[in-house]
Design a protein that fits this description.
Layout lengths: L2 E6 L7 H16 L3 E6 L5 H12 L5 H11 L1 H16 L4 E4 L6 E3 L8 E4 L2 H8 L3 E5 L2 E3 L5 E3 L5 H11 L4 E6 L20 E3 H9 L7 H9 L4 E5 L7 E4 L12 E17 L4 H11 L7 E5 L5 E8 L4 H10 L1 H4 L3 E14 L9 H11 L6 E5 L2 E7 L3 H11 L10
Parallel strand pairs: 1-2, 1-9, 2-6, 3-6, 9-11, 10-12
Antiparallel strand pairs: 4-5, 7-8, 11-12, 13-15, 13-16, 14-15, 16-18, 17-18
Helix pairs in contact: 1-4, 6-8, 7-8, 12-13
The chain binds adenosine-5'-diphosphate, aspartic acid and magnesium ion (MG).
Adenosine-5'-diphosphate binds next to loops.
Amino acid sequence: MGLIVQKFGGTSVATTERIRNVSSHVAREIRAGHQVIVVVSAMSGVTDSLVGYVRDVSLLDEVEAYADHDLVVSSGEQVTAGLLALRLRSMGIPARAWAGWQVPIWTTDAYGKARIEEIETDNIRKSLANGRVAVITGFQGMTREQRITTLGRGGSDTSAVAIAAAFGAERCDIYTDVDGVYTTDPRIVKNARKLDYVSYEEMLELASAGAKVLQTRSVEMAMNHHVRLQVRTSFSEEAGTILVKEEDLMEKQRVTGLAYSRDEARITLSNVDDRPGISAAIFGPLADANINVDMIVQNVTPDGKKTDVTFTVTKGDLALALSALEAHREKIGYQAIHQDANVAKLSAVGVGMRSHAGVAQEMFRTLAEKGINIIVITTSEIKISVLIEESYIELALRALHDAYGLHAVVEKG
Ligand code: ADP
Ligand code: ASP
Ligand code: MG
């Protein structure tokens, strides 16, 4: 029997009672003869509180502050790793807790969103060979200058997948509070259906479009390193959703799932001169300020001289983006900036879109029937996204979920 990685999210370790529950999932895999590496998140709500403490005391405008930010917000994972290792030992299962720096998990120095560069395996391998379960803190790593980093919110998923890849694990199970990946967020659409399989490509699009059940980078990493990934719940023994290669999908759905993100803000620059280099003049300063731009549309006036440029950034980056654009106002040469933070993005994803037409049309018709205005549209080969007013997002999700026939099949009898 090989090695497996089990990752437990915040709700799965939210209380000491739940940590006891988690230990039984570990025990089951040990009984089945596996070596086990466990990756844990902080108790749910803890990371939010830690981020709140940092905001209360600091404006976070220097690198040193970012490093200390990560030292603080990474601490929640240490509590759960220690508690789970203690619990396992008290059940007679040899175990040891490891902080990211003890593994070590080396990362870049982009505090708050560091990327894993290398995971050393010697220390843990020795410990596993001695029959000990390794319980590793998710979400954290260390720079070569020996400062603690964090991997971005939801980053424990990425820790788990990276560890599974580094150790060549047989499987990586992501235990969360839902029993798998659904056709859309089951908290919003009650008749959302659990998927038995989803392709890596679709999951990547769903995650990057806002389905937070897996962090985007973890899916990317699983795809690149061929990690066998399963999303399942820690509240039962039920099988979850297995990620598979697109060619192994039995049926290629036109639309597999819907995702949404409220973390969008719209900026429009009006009456910009339509000349070569204008996009570089607008987006260069944003890139320099480390701001990710998502959707972009440009409307040229009939005489071809002026253009309006609309794009989206995250709500958190809005103020920074506006000040970067103000600072370059002369060079860009726009008449006015308009902004709107009350917008949200809705996306439909499915590999079948590669070969079936009509998905976009159905989306536009359904939204029109509900009187929902579309502000921006973007597409990729297997995804269509629209930006709409935030207050309509739940209505739009439910309407599209019905229109695409994604709801659960009602069982007879
Ligand atoms: P964890 O703390 O275990 O990492 P998260 O809160 O990060 O859990 O992710 C699980 C949540 O993701 C679910 O509770 C659910 O509300 C949300 N979610 C959004 N989209 C989906 C989807 N398509 N399928 C399943 N869950 C989804
Ligand atoms: N505790 C971190 C967070 O809340 C990491 C994680 O849970 O994946 O974002
Ligand atoms: Mg998560």
